[in-house]
Design goal:
Blueprint: E1 11-19, E2 24-31, E3 34-39, E4 43-48, E5 53-59, E6 66-71, E7 75-76, E8 79-80, E9 86-91, E10 95-100, E11 105-110, E12 116-121, E13 128-132, E14 136-140, E15 146-152, E16 160-162, E17 168-173, E18 176-181, E19 189-192, E20 198-203, E21 210-214, E22 219-222, E23 228-231, E24 241-244, E25 250-255, E26 258-263, E27 268-272, E28 279-284, E29 290-295, E30 299-306, E31 309-312, E32 315-321, E33 324-329, E34 334-339, E35 344-350, E36 353-358, E37 361-366, E38 369-377, E39 385-388, E40 392-396, E41 401-405, E42 410-412, E43 429-431, E44 435-439, E45 446-451, E46 464-465, E47 470-475, E48 485-490, E49 495-499, E50 510-513, E51 516-521, E52 528-532, E53 535-539, H1 544-547, E54 556-560, E55 569-574, E56 577-581, E57 587-591, H2 595-604, H3 608-618, H4 621-633, H5 637-646, H6 650-660, H7 665-675, H8 679-688, H9 692-701, H10 705-715, H11 719-732, H12 740-746, H13 753-783
Antiparallel strand pairs: 1-30, 2-3, 3-4, 4-5, 6-9, 7-8, 9-10, 10-11, 12-13, 13-14, 14-15, 16-17, 17-18, 18-19, 20-21, 21-22, 22-23, 24-25, 25-26, 26-27, 28-29, 29-30, 31-32, 32-33, 33-34, 35-36, 36-37, 37-38, 39-40, 40-41, 41-42, 43-44, 44-45, 45-46, 47-48, 48-49, 49-50, 51-52, 52-53, 53-54, ...
Bound molecules: 2-acetamido-2-deoxy-beta-D-glucopyranose (2 copies).
WD repeats: 109-141, 191-223
Pfam family, one: TPR_IFT80_172
GO biological process, one term: cilium assembly
Amino acid sequence: MISCLLSIVITVKIQHVSYSEELVSCVGWTTADELYSCSEDHQILRWNLLTSETSLVVKLQEDLFPIDLHWFPKTVGGKKQAQAEIFVLTSTDGKFHLASKMGRIEKSVEAHKGAVLAGRWNYDGTALITAGEDGQIKIWSKSGMLRSTLAQQGSPVYSVAWGPDSDRILYTSGRLLIIKPLQPSAKLLQWKAHEGIILKVDWNSVNDLILSSGEDCKYKVWDSYGRLLYTSSSHDYPVTSVSWSPDGEVFAVGSFNTLRLCDKTGWSYALEKPNTGSVFSLAWSADGTQLAGACGNGHVIFAHVVEQRWEWRSFEITLTKRRTMQVRNVVNDAGDVLEFRDRVIKASLAHGHLVVTTSLQCYVYSATNWNTPLIFDLKEGTVSLIVQAEKHFLLVDGTGVYVFSYEGRLISTPRFPGMRTDILNAQSVSLSNDTIAIRDKSDEKVIFLFDALTGKALGDGKPLTHKMEVVEIALDQCGPSSDRKIAVIDKNRDLYLTAVHRLYREHNICKIGTMVHTMAWNDSANILCGIQDTQFTVWHYPSAVFTDKDLLPKTLYMKDASEFSRAPHILNYVGTQVTVRRCDGSLVYSSVSPYPALLHEYSASSRWEDALRLCRFAKDQSLWACLAGMAMANRELTTAEVAYAAIGEVDKVQYINSIKDMPSKESSVAHMLLFSGHVQEAEATLLQAGLVYQTIQVHINLYNWDRALELAVKHKTHVDTVLAYRLKFLQDFSKKETNKRFMQYADGVEVDWEKIQAKVEMELVKEREKAATTSVRSSLASRR
Ligand SMILES: *[C@@H]1O[C@H](CO)[C@@H](O)[C@H](O)[C@H]1NC(C)=O
Ligand SMILES: *[C@@H]1O[C@H](CO)[C@@H](O)[C@H](O)[C@H]1NC(C)=O
């Protein structure tokens, strides 16, 4: 399975249902096993899921009808908050209250006219936002002092959410959604989102996606630019609640007698029809394993996610209970049961290993032995992300990023200033045997690159900066570390490829696709697959773009994916089959050729004869195009010539032929660089070898007149050659000289083609002789 794309199947199990007397309006978790609920009978109840006990925390005064509850953030940037044990409670009388864990109201503040419909702390606990029936939105300090009134409008604000950096808020205004930056001068973004009043919104800090639901009986997923990513069909009743799981992989939806679990693309995994009335509010525990709902009939429902499934090669692993996994090998139907001391929080299966984290420990299994896992204790907090490479894996928790070997040894802990680990996800972190890439959050154009073994920044320590915000990154997994490449999808959905090393030299960042929704590298060859607009695309040899841009389109496999319908999702890519899930949930299979992977293998081991034989056998133009690119990249000119001939590129065949006839090795290297469009590198190669005339000739051929003249003047040679070619060029195009420098040097220089040709001839003879003596000298040296 391709590790960066999710292939899990989830079911919600409603664990138990209990009730108070009247409508429950809100719920909030204190720990992974303890929940507070507030209901219209003025009770605050505490639910302990370990002991299954429910106790009354406090009975509030008779005129206090609670609406919303939100706990002060527990940890900020990995540090425990001193003031963690309070929550905000909003009520129908226009007040909000700061209450202690014991239920004591520490402070009540007059905030709005009419009910306070929502109250939310920001991520670092430095501000509280409240929204009122009076159409106002206010910001308060931690201690409940009014800072400002952020918005004022004619209709009630039913729901608010903070943006991932706590620098913007999202709120409802009738049928509109509005994103307002806190910075007064910044522009607000608003759009019509529903056909009825919007009742709930949520904004996930990890995936930056927005949920909304409303009286039009629909729920929708948006990106933070207001672009619609998913809309549900119409339900029978208004959708009264939506809530993201903390890691942003799934979300829950509540309606009348309905609880639904969806993945972030909107696809619904599970639908339960509990007898609850409307589910007014939903809350996930911080570790994302449990969900609670506040129900109209006085019930509080609890759900947890089970039957999550992971697949790799022939293995299928299912979380059957909260502490139990079932392993099945579909080849021989062998089964194993894995038991854990604590609840499973995260798991990942790839590269022959299963990595499981519970609240306290990490378990590492090898697919060859399910009986004796390696177990080590986790130092701090809850693991929010596991990323695997063949050699090692990486864990992210609230305090940092840790690379471990499969033997459980801590290998490195990459960091950069201002790193926020709570929002890292599979799209913003990538790992290969040698490299770690992490996209920055404060500046989403920036990607930090680290050596996986030391955790130190790569090269000169400068991060890779793209010209636009980056939404997804993925390192390729094969080949030597010096060739490591990173694929990047930016905000415009353009896909780029660049080398991780030598970033500032040979390779630029090259565009290889547009409108790319999703991508994944194969793990056994550097083949990339993705969905591009309505095409399912396989980039059989993406690096072709570095040797010959024109070749890239010829190396692709594309298949119309409109049959996959809108927003398809690649589930896995195993063997020669790709499984894609359409947004209606059905699966579509697509086969992929096995030959490109074989060709990668031949090229990596310089088995060019085998590669040619394979291409002749497969008779596939895209395979020949891949071989042309691979051979050129490896300076294997004979094979390249055959491959280019097979795809009818006569010009390129001739060029390669001329490269083979170059008088010296330096000249052929330079021309191979020119072939790939690397003019500066070609110039440097020639000048370093003292081949000044050849450098000048290269610039003449490229019509780089100024540079040609500059070099000629600087080295006091072939000024007349440059002038002669320039004159010929002007005559061919019936133009007049307008270039001042050329006008200046043309004065008094006689153009004599015979003389020039003789000089050029001499240069070539000299180059050949020099090349011959060097090769004799080196062969003598090697004989010694
Ligand atoms: C990655 O590491 C594994 C384990 O050390 C090794 O077998 C594999 O060849 C490595 N792959 C690459 C591309 O270096
Ligand atoms: C990568 O491609 C090869 C060859 O097509 C295939 O056998 C393998 O299963 C693929 N790996 C993944 C992880 O999809």
